[in-house]
Amino acid sequence: METPEVALDKWKGILWAPTTTDDVLALCPEHKVRLEIQTQYGRSAQDAPSTVKHQYLVCPEDNVFFPMGGVQFWMFKRRYNSAKEAISLKNVRIFDLDNVYTPVLKKEPKPKDKDLSLQVEIDKVPGGKKIVIYAADRNEIDKKTQIFIDPQKESATFDGNDIHPNSIFAKVEITYKSGKKTTLEG
Q1: Do 81 and 98 share a domain, yes or no?
Q2: Do 123 and 55 share a structural domain?
Q3: Range of the domain at 69
């Protein structure tokens, strides 16, 4: 039986491997073995009183120490996860839509129409998913609109900083699962 390949991240000189339980394992970058947690007194974390801070990760192969900044391992893992999220969100522009922070679309639409560009995305947001319709006039870069559809709340809004959707569309009609309809028309 073959072992599946796992993508490893490197942070603070340590390799981090995801597990199947949404957790991560700290691995030695040289030996690829799980690092052990030790206190500043050289004791195993399992043998130490709970009042002692866990300060180091240690490779069992060659006893190389990796400092954790004086925090316990659960906090060190939390900082790794925060750093990883920060990297993935580094260049994302976000705007506030009814107190739900939604990333602005980054992908440029593929040209199929010489005058109008249209793209639809489904974004994961707290509490479900939102559908974003992005439309732009190719000839006038400032003529663009974004329509946000929230199927859970059965509502539709648009970005007030852009033009009104009726400037591009004659009519936008949204029908929800329940049969309720929302219409944007001029």
Answers
A1: no
A2: no
A3: 9-88
Whose structure tokens read 């001029």? 186
pLDDT grade for 62, boundaries at 50, 70 and 90:
very high
- For position 134, what pLDDT does the model report? 84
User: Are 131 and 162 in the same domain?
Assistant: yes
φ, ψ (nearest 5 deg) of residue 74:
-60, -35
Look up the pTM and report it: 0.45
How confident is the model over 122-162, as pLDDT tens digits? 888 777 788 888 888 778 877 888 888 888 888 888 888 88
